[in-house]
Design a protein that fits this description.
The complex is a heterodimer of chains A (about 200) and B (about 450).
Chain A lengths: L5 E9 L6 H4 L19 H4 L21 E4 L11 H9 L3 E4 L4 H8 L4 E4 L2 H13 L4 E5 L4 E4 L5 E3 L4 H9 L3 H6 L2 H9 L4
Chain B lengths: L5 H7 L2 E4 L5 E4 L2 E4 L5 H10 L9 E4 L16 H16 L3 E3 L9 H7 L8 E4 L13 E4 L2 H10 L1 E4 L3 E8 L8 H12 L7 E6 L1 H4 L3 H9 L8 E3 L4 H7 L8 H11 L12 E6 L6 E3 L7 E3 L10 H10 L14 E4 L7 H11 L9 E4 L4 H9 L2 H8 L2 E2 L20 E4 L14 E4 L2 H10 L5 H5 L1
Parallel strand pairs in B: 3-4, 3-6, 4-5, 6-7, 9-10, 9-12, 10-11, 15-16, 15-18, 16-17, 18-19
Antiparallel strand pairs in B: 1-2, 2-8, 13-14
Helix pairs in contact in B: 2-5, 6-8, 12-14, 12-15
Classes of the chains: A alpha/beta (about 200), B alpha/beta (about 450).
């Protein structure tokens, strides 16, 4: 897994609530048996019309916006457990998703793929949308060590929470498999004396 | 001794160890896998040179990406065929039991595992599918995981997790005629919203769930994830034990009695504390229907769509081509789907058949019935339900996830409404541009017969 410490980048505002994983990557693209290439189809049915032409109203097709931070409405990533959603977002080039609320499974999947979910207050999110919509060139800084997100050249800044263990994993690029496999003896001992 | 919830008892008995200020290592008893979310996990293990730790605790099936017609013939879609072949290859290589397409035990993972007795009270179960919450109906801790976690369970039979908070939803009283388990859960989600359960495991309590069959309890627990809860649970009781008894992988003979004695200790202790509690009156529940693009956007079938100025709400109604404040009664419907891990068990088809018997589907309607498993399919034929469906013009297909997520060819055309017994009404869920209306098998059957949405409660009374 790639390490994550700090990121300075512009951001893309996806001002929609309850974005579900079927929108992030529709089921018909889940036939692949590897993790690569899903970025081509991220938000497919919002990005493209049925005839394959780009939907110019969708923010990813708005040339004013770019960057590796996705800023999305409340309850991002709800629905299916497909990790393809996290793969699609990272494959497209995002390293951070900011929202006021994340669905559980998506959040876990993101962290397991080096994609940082930054959960902010509703007020901060609303201010951030306003800032990005009035100035698409706004730069943000996400600092994982200090657990802060801030908008450059403004007072807009907030702390965010992250599980201490997951933070260590993200900063060092560790994943859970290493940890679990190293604890196999303990797991075997547990199996030998299960009470149920 | 401190008072514990059902969830606490099962969770605590599976903790291998705890990391200071971090997650716990949770032991997983049963791991269910399917073709879509497992290949990358097998690849990862292979790349790292890690063997599958406990292959005999894994059960595999092919369900998400399978055709529901001509299952005896080679799968036509190349990518789907490759994905299915990959699953067979991976299972063979790693000594994992696979019930592949056409096998008499094949079916949707959340239908076939309970049928085979793989699902039992007090176990921890996972699957790379968010509707794994279904198995909580037996008093198991069961939840959906991502593919990285599938790889973790392959490698260690464990997961690193923080214990979720606890939530209890109680429903007491007498359900009205025509109100099915699907209506109960759609009602709960419409009241609580799609993220009220995030970070929680939910226990369903009260006489309404106690009186439900296992099939009904599975429908309820199945949709826990639609309010954000990773899992839902119902205390195991005689109904549970009776269901499990004698099934292929259930404990046999004296071992079964020993297990029952243990399972009886699992229900929540009187006075145990939950982090959050809600309770509802069964009499307030009516047949439900959804009008929007998330499962929380549900109303009683007799009610009008609410008015809301929220832009996401308006976007949702625009997608559905509905107006705020209007009623859905008499809306013409051309597609009806009865199936999915929510409602594809024998009881669901019995309910549909009972209503349909002696009637015909409306001419404008395409009505697909997709059983959850080969066993359900066989039972439909054996009980004579197929004859009822055939005579009424419904199309009984072969088992699989089918039009619930439309990975295969079972897609609802652009712009069409589908009254569906599945679990998600997200944009395009049943095919690009399709519009899903979630409902019970009874409402779905009635819609197919009438060719439009009707107030089923009036028809029954």
């Amino acid at each position: 897994m790639e390490k994550f410490t700090t990121l300075q980048s512009r951001a893309i505002p996806l001002h929609i609530e309850n974005v579900d994983t079927d929108q992030i990557i529709p089921a018909r693209f889940l036939k692949a048996t590897d993790r690569k290439g899903f970025g081509d189809n991220v938000f497919r049915d919002w990005r493209y019309h049925k005839d394959g032409t780009a939907n110019s109203d969708f923010v990813l097709n708005n040339s004013k916006y770019s960057g590796s931070i996705l800023v999305a409405g409340d309850n991002f990533g709800c629905g299916s457990s497909r990790e393809h959603a996290a793969w699609a977002i990272t494959d497209y080039g995002f390293k951070v998703v900011v929202s006021s609320f994340f669905a559980d499974i998506f959040k876990g999947n993101a962290l397991n793929n080096g994609l940082l979910p930054v959960q902010v207050s509703k007020q901060f999110l609303s201010d951030l949308f306003q800032q990005l919509e009035s100035n698409p060139y706004t730069e943000l800084e996400v600092n994982l060590e200090n657990q802060t997100i801030s908008v450059e050249n403004s007072d807009l800044s907030e702390d965010f929470e992250i599980d201490a263990y997951k933070k260590t994993c993200m900063i060092n690029g560790y994943d859970d498999i290493d940890y679990l496999v190293n604890n196999k003896e303990q797991i075997e001992a547990f199996e030998a004396q299960k009470i149920y | 001794m401190s008072k514990k919830t059902l969830f606490d008892k099962v969770w605590d008995s599976h903790v291998v160890s705890s990391i200071e200020n971090g997650p716990q290592i949770l032991y997983i008893d049963k791991h269910l896998i399917h073709e879509v979310t497992s290949p990358q996990a097998f690849n990862e293990l292979e790349d790292r040179g890690i063997p599958v730790f406990r292959p005999n605790q894994i059960v595999a099936t092919a369900d998400h990406n399978t055709p529901t017609l001509n299952q005896d013939q080679p799968v036509r879609d190349k990518l789907s065929r490759q994905q299915l072949e990959q699953l067979s290859k991976n299972c063979k290589k790693n000594n994992i039991t696979l019930y592949e397409l056409g096998h008499k035990y094949n079916g949707i993972v959340h239908v076939m595992a309970p049928e085979l007795g793989v699902t039992q009270p007090g176990l921890t179960m996972v699957c790379g599918d968010s509707h794994t919450s279904t198995h909580g109906a037996f008093g198991a801790i069961a939840f959906g995981i991502g593919t990285s976690q599938v790889a973790q369970v392959f490698a260690s039979q464990c997961l690193l997790l923080k214990k979720p908070k606890s939530l209890r939803v109680s429903v007491n009283g007498k359900l009205k005629n025509g109100v099915l388990p699907k209506d109960v859960i759609l009602y709960i989600i419409s009241k609580l919203g799609t993220n009220s359960g995030t970070g929680y495991f939910c226990e369903y309590a009260g006489n309404v769930f106690e009186e439900m069959s296992m099939e009904g309890r599975m429908t309820v627990c199945n949709m826990s994830i639609e309010m954000g809860a990773r899992g839902g649970m119902i205390a195991p009781d005689e109904t549970t034990f009776e269901y499990v008894k004698g099934r292929k992988f259930a404990p046999q003979g004296g071992e079964f009695e020993k297990k029952v004695a243990y399972w009886k200790t699992l229900p929540t202790d009187e006075g145990a504390q939950f982090d959050k509690e809600y309770s509802f009156d069964a009499e307030d529940i009516e047949p439900m229907i959804t009008y929007g693009t998330n499962p929380g956007m549900g109303i009683k079938i007799s009610e009008n769509i609410p008015v809301d100025e929220n832009p996401s709400f308006k976007k949702s109604l625009a997608y559905m081509n509905f107006e705020a404040g209007e009623s859905l009664i008499n809306k013409p419907i051309n597609f009806v789907f009865i199936g999915s891990c929510t409602n594809s068990r024998i009881e669901d088809f019995r309910v549909a058949a009972e209503y349909i018997k002696g009637k015909k589907k409306a001419k404008n309607v395409t009505a697909w019935l997709v059983p959850g498993s080969k066993q359900v399919e066989a039972q439909i034929i054996e009980e004579g339900l197929k004859t009822v469906f055939d005579e009424a013009g419904f199309e009984l297909r072969q088992p699989g996830c089918s039009a619930c997520l439309a990975m295969n060819d079972d897609k609802i055309p652009q712009g069409e409404y589908c009254v569906s017994t599945s679990n998600r009404n997200f944009e395009g869920r049943q095919g690009q541009g399709s519009r899903t209306i979630l409902a019970s098998p009874l409402v779905a059957a009635a819609t197919a017969v009438e060719g439009k949405i009707i107030d089923i409660s009036k028809h029954l009374n």
